[in-house]
Amino acid sequence: MRDFFATTATLALVIATPALAQTANPESQDSAAATPAEDQDPETSAKAQSGDIVVTARRREESIRDVPGTISAVTADQLESKGTVAGSGDLLNTVPGVRFNDVASENLAEVSIRGSGTARATGADSGVGLFVNGAYAGSSTLGGRNFKTIDYFDIERVEVLEGPQGALYGRNSEFGVVNIVLAKPRFNDSGYIRNTFTFGLNQDRLAVVVNKTLSDTVAIRIGAEGYAQSDGFYFNPRTEKYYDSTKGWNGRAQLRYRSGPLDVTFLVDSQDLNLPSFVNSLVIPGGGVNAAVPQGFQQSRFTLPHEGEDGMQQKTLRGMLLASYDFGWATLESTTMATRWRSSQQYASAIDYPTLAALRQSGQLGLYPFSQVRTNVVDRTLYQDLHLTGKTGALTWIVGVEGLYQNDDYRLAVASSPCAFTGINQGICTGTPTAPVCLKPLPTSANCPATFPLVFGSDANTKQYIYSAAAYASLQYTIGNFSVVGEGRITYDHKEATLFAYALYTTTYTRAPTTFSFSAEQPVFTVTASYKVPGLNNALFYAKVGTGYRAGGVNNGAFRAAAPNPFVFTYDNEKTLGWEAGIKANITPNLFFRTAAYLSRTTDAITSINDGCTLTNACGVAGQNFNINGGTIEARGVSAALDGRFRLGGGLFSFGLNAATQRARFESVPAGLTGLPVVGSSVAQIPDWTMSAVVDYRRPINERVTGFFNLSYSGQRGGSQDTTTLATPAIPMTDFDIFNGQIGFSVGKTRVALNVRNLTDRQVQVLKFTQAGYPLSVRYNKPRTFALTVGYRW
């Protein structure tokens, strides 16, 4: 079991009472009191027993049952009941209508809600707002459309709001919001230590969290988590390294002061992790469909020799100040965050040099083995939200302001062949300008040119600045069981970006630096009406209409007069208008049901296209991608969920079931451009169906020992992987059914659990690449793993 590294805070706490897993919507806790976990802390236990999950979905604390809308709140206990959280997908895979696009890379993974789709590496912001403790955590840079590992360490709960949330959460919340609430210091002496060993990976993951009361007014919470790994599934025999290795640490320290009406928490946390890198397996068919490898080439799923570097590193440093002051007539809330994170990734050519030599010997050109891509993103963010919440008679109100500043540096270095790679008898050019190298894969290979005619690659550095300021307000009027809420916001955004492009390994510009800027002012609103039916099992009916937007931005590239699609320097905001109606009700005291239907219309949809240039047309150079406003999208869908909790055989049996169907299609596109989506085609990465289920059973064995069992399921059907154009046919996504399970027991404050992920060892192609309509390579999901967790809470 190897050594471990120490690191920060929790991950997801423990237990599984709430049928919950709620599949993500502990509204089910409204229907019956949750049984507290044996090792649950007192504050969380008290809330669970009262059946009152308190959320901050509308910028103020309130019971989840009082929120008219599709909202889910997954607690740390519910997450732990399914097993240790290993990624953002574990937070969201049981939330109706929400999908985590896991492409085996933390940098490229994204969250999709209700037809928002995803847009891998487009340079645009996500259409889903990512927040931590109410502070904006996303960015438009690589890695900015997913949470970091530190974000889901030692959490209290995860709140998911579906539908346009622009009125209270602002830019980039047009399809929904995911807000991770971290565990605060509590006024008790408590803590836990937990180690998880994953077989096959030989990975140890040790977490320690200590909560200490220093006085009646001061408490601290300090946590650390470390990863050590000596094995893996995906192996590079050329470098003798594993692609799927995780090593490093997380750490967090918090100080809380609470006295009378004042409550202040200061938080500092950090992350330094080497994370798994994605790897693609070539699946080129024979029969001459690929000119470079006409006989075809099939690689192993797990053993893939590459030249060069493959890896991923993330480092973060963050400080937050959370403060509230209760004036009696109103409460002032302040959220301040300063963060700096760096995300780097390296990936190399799909084959190594010996494989190329073997292909040449069989009479095939093969692929250049020394291609190398290196990305490095540094993001600096300052965020401030300040709002006042009050209640006067039948009126509840909020007024607030928000500010965001981001400074991003993004570097993309691509190594390519400095000589033409077109003939089987050519030598292979590589190296650097000061140390060129010529290799001969065949005895008959020709010498390389004395002077390599091409550059060794490109090195582009983009510096981007974002300024955003907003004012917002909410007014709710309640009379009896009827309530109506109006929310509005006005936001001003400004982006500015400068691109510096060099020949790789040199300081020689390949084109002059360019600077472009974009500014926009955007109003948004939401109106919601709800009615609680007296005596009808606490049924809540609601209807709402609202708007949201994804911020426009800046493209950086070269304008080419001969390009079929002229390069544009900026693109406007994408805007969504959405309608929703829903019902939440207890069918019986032990069964809670909820359903919602929605329709949304997105105009000026941000779409990535190519300028149409090729080496063989009038441009004479390769094409470049850029974002435009590419048309109108209409999305519609229905989701439903059922949660239950029953006493059975002397124990507690609970379950959560949900399913969602959705459609999102391009209704129209601008005229005069090629490479745009086909009218009527589906938005990328939107399955036709998503489903999930969780069943949990726990039963006392004797006075000190409790046994527990949990089985969870998630699946999807239909959908297209990427945007469909006339030149790129639709690539269907893989249907899948994934099962996870956990079984164990607790003795007093000690807990032991055996967890299995991907129980049936289902192989899923999470990403498929094609060329001229034929398969080229695929990226696979993770195989089955077993893990043993031992923890102690005090």
List the SSEs and their pairings.
Elements lengths: L20 E4 L17 H9 L3 E2 L6 E2 L7 E5 H7 L5 H5 L5 E4 L8 E4 L14 E5 L2 E2 L18 E8 L3 H4 L6 E7 L7 E9 L4 E11 L4 E12 L5 E2 L4 E2 L4 E13 L2 E14 L5 E4 L12 E2 L12 E16 L3 E19 L4 H9 L10 E21 L2 E21 L12 E5 L2 E5 L17 E23 L2 E22 L5 E24 L7 E11 L2 E2 L15 E2 L2 E15 L2 E13 L2 E5 L14 E5 L2 E17 L2 E18 L20 E12 L4 E13 L18 E12 L2 E8 L7 E7 L2 E7 L4 E9 L1
Parallel strand pairs: 7-10
Antiparallel strand pairs: 2-3, 4-9, 5-6, 7-8, 9-10, 11-12, 11-44, 12-13, 13-16, 14-15, 16-17, 17-20, 18-19, 18-43, 20-21, 21-22, 22-23, 23-26, 24-25, 26-27, 27-28, 28-29, 29-32, 30-31, 32-33, 33-36, 34-35, 36-37, 37-38, 38-39, 39-40, 40-41, 41-44, 42-43
Count, helices: 5
Largest sheet: 22 strands, antiparallel, barrel
CATH class category name: Mainly Beta
The H-level CATH homologous superfamily, spelled out, is TonB-dependent receptor, beta-barrel domain
Mean pLDDT: 88
Description of the structure:
With 794 residues, the protein is mainly beta. It has one domain (21-416, 454-524, 534-793): Maltoporin, Chain A (Beta Barrel). It has five helices and 44 strands. The strands form nine sheets. The protein has a 22-stranded antiparallel beta barrel. It has a five-stranded mixed beta sheet with strand order 4-9-10-7-8. It starts with 20 loop residues before the first strand and ends with a strand. The model is unreliable at 1-51 (pLDDT under 50).
